[in-house]
Write a structure and sequence with these properties.
Elements lengths: L7 H18 L3 H6 L6 H13 L9 H9 L8 H15 L1 H4 L7 H9 L2 H7 L11 E4 L15 E5 L4 E12 L1 H6 L4 E7 L9 E7 L5 E6 L10 E12 L3 E2 L10 H38 L15 H28 L5 H26 L1 H4 L5 H9 L8 H13 L8
Parallel strand pairs: 1-4
Antiparallel strand pairs: 2-3, 3-7, 4-5, 5-8, 6-7
Helix pairs in contact: 1-5, 5-10, 5-11, 7-10, 10-11, 10-12, 10-14, 11-12, 12-14, 12-15
Length: 417
């Protein structure tokens, strides 16, 4: 049974993160929005220290701790991703761009957690005991491989003499790629093919550690929203990485897409987390509208029939309904991730719905306040810009509709496009 009850540790974590959002994110949100590509180091360094104290925010556990958790599995359900969801929602409530700069909050960590071996998890998800923050990223998109990841042409070739993989190719729109590649202990999970003729069966993901010769950032994007988070182009020319840095089985089976599916499992984990981020921004906008209207002396009634509500009351009621229903859908998908239950359908639906809700709620918040909402006096117009990305990355709304439709109707990708 799905349990929505928050543990004492989660409640305490939310309290700490709310304080961070109020004092370290909101006051400088406008500054970092207007000064794109500046890195919010005060927030990053504070969060690094805070996360070391809140061990629950770390994905990694030692082998001994893993055995202990396995022994207690029947007593205490696994809640790794549920904790992450509450963390992400609150940090995105503070500032969505700042959240994407959180140490160990990158998609690279989630990829290793979702499909990595115990040895890879031990190496790349080590406890947060270092003095410096660590950043991770994931590089998938290419110029000719956007939503259709099976068209990836970035190539990985095994050098049998040195037992190393050699990567060649270019990846675009890599979120937090600059932080991950400049950090001495950071890394980027790069998707590449080990056999172009094998199609999806040849797709694998590789951990490229920061400072690896042959990997270079060639462009930094200027964006509509989440401007305090970097988005870069990563170029790899004869980039050599250890054999054991490949996530998945190096053996290719022509009629088996297990390798590709293993890489795609990452999305089943990360899409609900993106949904949590979208809902954090949505909640921020909804609460801000209520606060401004209250300060203007406008009373909002809730415990009355809908037919007697004013137009604004009905719109706010609808916004509240959308946020809450989307959160329930998101938490179901996250609960399934924690229980290691197949959740491709729920993952796609939660991300699709939350991305749509984020755009609608933030836009409606701007509309309700009119010129005030459109002005830069408030953060509402910024949140509207920040929210849109959640409907784009980790699979666009259109792609997630396809994924959900295929699962519901029982179609394969080749049958329904």
């Amino acid at each position: 049974m799905i349990n929505f009850e928050k543990s004492k540790a989660v409640i305490q974590m939310q309290y700490v993160l709310k304080t961070v959002a109020d004092n370290m994110m909101r006051p400088v949100s406008r500054y970092f929005d207007e000064n794109e590509h500046e890195i919010p180091w005060d927030y990053i360094n504070y969060m690094h220290q805070a996360m070391r104290g809140m061990g629950s925010a770390n994905l990694a556990t030692s082998p001994e701790k893993q055995k202990e958790e396995a022994a207690q599995k029947t007593k205490k359900p696994r809640q790794v991703f549920q904790v992450m969801a509450y963390q992400i929602e609150m940090l995105s409530w503070g500032d969505a761009g700042f959240y994407l700069c959180t140490p160990r909050g990158g998609l690279g960590s989630a990829a290793v957690e979702a499909a990595g071996t115990p040895e890879q998890k031990q190496k790349f998800l080590s406890p947060l005991d270092g003095k410096d923050p660590i950043f991770t990223a994931m590089a998938i998109t290419e110029a000719d491989a956007g939503s259709d990841n099976s068209k990836i042409v970035c190539r990985a070739v095994l050098d049998e003499e040195t037992n190393e993989w050699i990567l060649n190719g270019e990846k675009i729109f890599v979120t937090a790629g600059k932080l991950a590649m400049l950090d001495t202990d950071g890394y980027t999970v790069v998707w590449a093919t080990i056999d172009p003729e094998a199609g999806r069966a040849g797709i694998r993901s590789f951990v490229v550690e920061a400072g690896t010769p042959g990997s270079e950032i060639t462009k930094q994007e200027h964006k509509l929203g989440i401007r305090s988070s970097d988005t870069v182009t990563l170029n790899m020319i004869d980039c050599r990485i250890p054999f054991e840095n490949m996530i998945g089985d190096p053996e290719i089976k022509k009629k088996d897409t297990k390798g590709f599916k293993g890489a795609m499992q990452t999305f089943n984990v990360t899409r609900p987390l993106v949904a949590a981020a979208a809902l954090g921004v949505s909640r921020a906008a909804l609460e801000e509208v209520r606060l401004v209207l209250k300060e203007q002396g406008i009373e909002l009634r809730t415990m009355i029939p809908r037919s007697k509500m004013t137009n604004i009351e009905r719109e706010l009621s609808d916004m509240e309904r959308m946020v809450r229903s989307s959160w329930n859908l998101t938490m179901k998908a996250i609960w399934m991730s924690d229980q290691k239950i197949s959740n491709q359908l729920e993952s796609a639906m939660s991300k699709l719905h939350a991305g749509d809700v984020g755009s609608k709620v933030t836009q409606k918040a701007v509309e309700i306040l009119g010129p005030m909402g459109y002005s830069r006096e408030f953060l509402l117009e910024k949140w509207m810009r920040d929210a849109k990305i959640n409907d784009i990355f980790e699979g666009t709304g259109q792609i997630n509709r396809l994924v959900a439709a295929r699962k519901i109707l029982g179609y394969r990708g080749s049958d329904l496009r």
